Amino acid sequence: MLLWQQFVEILRESIFAYAHVCNGNLGAGILAVTFLARLALLPLGVRIARAATVRQQAMARVQPQLDALRQTHRDNPGRLAEETRRLMSREGVPVVPLTGCLGNLAQVPVLMAMYSAVSAAATNGGRFLWIRSLAQPDWLVAALATLLTVAATATGLTTPAQSRSLVLSVTAFVTLIALSKMAAGVGLYWGLSSLFGAMQGWIVQRGLRRAAA
After folding, report:
1. Mean of pLDDT over the chain
2. What digits encode the pLDDT tens for the residues 115-166?
3. DSSP string, 6-60
4. CA-CA distance, 83 to 179, in Å (whole number)?
5. Number of domains into which the chain is organized
């Protein structure tokens, strides 16, 4: 717990340090530290997203065979599990996506610490661009961050069009409601993080298209 608090405090102080460099502009400090943190995580994020996309495509390929196995061995769970394992092994699809699990475990503490640091820093308020106070919610910030979140979600989806529309609609609704109640400083962090997420998805999709060409 002490190490966690120290890590959050380092990030918070970094925000104030960059704000000082930017003539005391706290919004600029939040964006600067968020940019550097997300840039450092980008290579790992791209690797995780690529592995997840490849696995989703592989699962879609073997889904008909999995459905057939479930139908054939619906009364024998043990045999179903064994045949499923053999199928996944034969097709080169890991049952447990270790790359994604371990990668996410590495990213989550940093992102949570960033969120905590930004939340604490934003309580100091201050103006930024059109924002009157970074400590108060701002609907325009919430809307822009929501659009970026939807864009980031869209680049990582491989679901059918009907399901895709539902997922994006729910994402937009939940995100907008959540951000409308959060400090604008947190909205800046959220929006820039989502922009990196969209870039990450674009890089992965572009790489997969090149590999398939």
Report:
1. 82
2. 899 999 898 888 888 989 999 999 999 999 999 998 888 886 666 566 777 8
3. HHHHHHHHHHHHHHHHTTT-HHHHHHHHHHHHHHHHHHHHHHHHHHHHHHHHHHH
4. 46
5. 1
